[in-house]
Amino acid sequence: MKFTTDEHGYYGKFGGAYIPELLYPNIKELEDNYIRIIESSDFQKEFISLLKDYVGRPSPLTYASRLSEKYNAHIYLKREDLNHTGSHKVNNTIGQILLAKALGKKRIIAETGAGQHGVATATVCALMGMQCTVHMGETDVKRQMPNVLRMKMLGATVIPAMSGNRTLKDAGNEAFRDWINNPTDTHYLLGSVVGPHPYPDMVARFQAIISEEIQWQLQEKTGKNLPDYVIACIGGGSNAMGAFYHFIEHESVQLIAVEAAGLGIHSGETAASIAKGTIGVIQGSKTMLMQTNDGQIIEPYSISAGLDYPGIGPAHAYLHDIGRTKVLDATDHESLQAAFELTRLEGIIPAIESAHALAALPKIQFNATDVVVVNISGRGDKDMDTYIAHMDKYC
Amino acid sequence: MNRIQQLFSKKQKQILSVYFTAGFPQLHDTVSIIELLEKHGVDMIEIGIPFSDPLADGNVIQHSSTVALANGMSLSVLFSQLEHIRKTVSIPLILMGYINPVLQFGVEKFCETCQSIGIDGVILPDLPLHEYTKEYKHIFEQYGIQNILLISPQTEESRIRMIDQQTQAFIYMVSSSSTTGTKSKFNDEQIHYFKRISSMNLQNPLLVGFGISNTETFAQVCEYTHGAIVGSACIKALEQPGTLEQNISTFVSSIKG
Ligand SMILES: Cc1ncc(COP(=O)(O)O)c(C=O)c1O
To answer: Residues B190-208: what's their mean pLDDT?
Structure first.
């Protein structure tokens, strides 16, 4: 079984393609071609070989013995942090750059929050000799400077987005505007399972490699290919969709998505789009988003630039709506605590985004026999300034 | 015949439709701006509903939306300002905005309020044809609200013909592949596109929008179509020192000559 949209690009009542007519031909071109291209044997051969020899897949599944002891369960870490460029984002950028090539595109644009998607995009553009422009909120340019410099070294042009809160959503708006202005030669390499159909489904297919590997890695390590829990953070939801994908139809696997609560769900400074959201349209997709009664999008807040987004991919809105996933949240403080805990117990410095997934561990009542997989979506190098600033409090 | 069709039956050339963002520059300027635009010879008005994330707009309209929202504009405030607009204004009035505020207000309540006020049409750039016909067309039709659809230089002929079937108002021709904003002159490629669409003999009249900002661009589009929609240039004019009336009068002459 494949978890995918209906023929109109919807997951239940969520999804669709709410785009200006100016973008219709671009979206239509993608929609008409993406499955054919992705499923072709040429594409698959190149995709799989790049994931193996360039990205370094399969990413390890690490048994976390000291963390397991602490939480009294069998905890495994899916090590997307060990991918080339340092996060799961590269799985999708490899897929989309091959698709863009197959469609004859010359120029790539992307939005980025934490800069991980921007770096992963700039990387594949360097690899394929494509021109690359990355839109990044000015606030994020400041808080994720090492990634800005990496993108520049890789040859990308980084354009600071000056609208709104100058974070991920605003970078996305600027990328859409760039695409409207450059409709024919440009591919918009969107970084999560958000946006108009077919992006949510396309990005999910590229990230599904995460759960595909977890299945056989668990089989090797435990003799069973199904865990009891899979836990992942959600900004737009791409690493979570990848980690959940092949388990969705197996009802025995509890799927836990962790949103960024910022200063707290009720603080007014949060990015918890399911906990605080209602249904509406954001950046081309009908989904759960944080908005006023009047339908204006509320500026989100999270310590984590990658989770600082007021919406959520439509597939996650759907899976939550039908009760298939459980959505928890973690504050800035809980996530920092979890990041320092993993560092000291396992010698792994996680991305602040991934630390949100780890922060769910103390919130769940495990049985001692439970097999738990936590998706470590990225590594913490880009977050060192944040961690250093909080070192005294958490070490 | 609806008010928009009546306009086009009386006047086929040099139609000037003006867009402005409601609540800008001041929250309570809306009604005065509409009355002054009519007084100074504008044929039709598009009243912008400000939105926090206007994807298809360039800097000028983004800025006016941000100011309008900070001033306290919302769809319900706008509707209360427009409650008696038909006592003083007779030209066609259109609301233009993004779909999300309309969804939150309720599509049916929105159409019903438009009808009771005397709003003739709606332009929602991020409500695509398919979603419109599947979910909302019957509601719009029930309340006699025209949904005006956009086409761009990239839109295929078969789709233009489909769009032409969906409305009894006009077709909003986006001048080039771009977000809203001003241009000083249209190039050969754009002129070719104006000619191409004009020769399709569509049932609806054509108005060109995005990029018209002066007498030259207005004259260029009027040569091939029924007229133009001007937005960013009006917003810029409203920000000038001087009274609303002076700014609007100067603005209209800067387009019509
Ligand atoms: C390491 C890491 N994890 C997670 C995310 C959040 O994105 P998503 O929810 O699409 O996985 C980001 C985004 O920048 C990231 O860099």
So the answer is: 97
The tens digit of pLDDT for each residue in B129-152 reads 999 999 999 999 999 999 999 999
Two structure tokens written together for A143: 């808080």
Q: Identify the residue whose C-alpha is closest to ligand 1 atom 12.
A: A306
For chain B positions 17-76, those within 8 Å of chain A (CB to CB) are: 51-53, 55-58, 62, 66, 69, 74-76
| H/E element, A208 | none
Q: What is the pLDDT of residue A1?
A: 57
A198 prior amide bond cis, ω within 30: yes
Give the span between the Cα atoms of B35 and A51, in whole angstroms. 63
Compute, in degrees rounded to 10, the torsion defined by CA atoms B24, B25, B27, B32.
-90
The total of other beta-carbon atoms located within 10 Å of residue A388's CB is: 9
Nearest one of A109, A63, A56 to A86, comparing CA atoms: A56
Q: Note the CATH number of domain A56-86+208-394.
A: 3.40.50.1100
- Please provide the CATH number assigned to the domain covering A18-51+89-203: 3.40.50.1100
| Cα separation of the two ends of chain B | 31
Share of chain B above pLDDT 70, in %: 100
**Distance, in angstroms, between B177 CA and closest chain A CA?**
5
**Helix pair A199-207, A89-102: axis angle to 10 deg:** 120
Distance A64 CA to ligand 1 centre (A): 22
Q: What is the CATH number of domain B3-256?
A: 3.20.20.70
Domain residue spans of chain A: 18-51+89-203, 56-86+208-394
Cβ atoms of B43 and B257 closer than 8 Å: no
State the ipTM, two decimals.
Answer: 0.95
Judge whether residue A325 has pLDDT over 90.
yes
**Which pair of structure tokens corresponds to residue A241?**
């969709």
Q: How far is CA B189 from CA A161, A246, B192, in A?
A: 30, 49, 5
Option in B149, B154, B179 nearest A177 (CB): B179
Separation in Å, CA of B140 to nearest CA in chain A: 18
Mean pLDDT over B211-235 rounds to: 96
Alpha helices (runs of H) in chain B, residue ranges in sequence order? 3-10, 30-39, 59-71, 75-81, 99-105, 107-117, 129-131, 137-142, 157-165, 188-198, 215-224, 232-238, 244-256
- The whole-number pLDDT of residue B166 equals 92
| First-residue to last-residue Cα distance in chain A | 46
Closest to A307 measured CA to CA, from A269, A373, A361, A353: A353
What letter would DSSP give residue A87?
A: B
The DSSP 8-state label assigned to residue A306 in this structure reads G
Distance from C-alpha of B2 to C-alpha of B144, rounded to nearest angstrom:
8
Contacts of B235 (CB under 8 A, 6+ apart): B20, B21, B24, B60, B61, B63, B64
pTM: 0.97
Numbers of helices and strands, H then E, in chain B: 13, 9
Q: Are B53 and A291 in contact (CB under 8 A)?
A: no
Ligand 1 center to residue A237 CA distance, Å?
7
CB distance A59 to A79 below 8 Å? yes
pLDDT per position as a tens digit, A145-167: 899 999 999 999 999 999 888 99
pLDDT for B5 = 96
Residue B250 has pLDDT above 60, yes or no: yes
- Do residue B131 and residue A20 have CB atoms under 8 angstroms apart? no
Q: What is the average pLDDT score of chain B?
A: 96
A115 at B interface, C-beta within 8 A: no
Q: State residue A2's pLDDT score.
A: 81
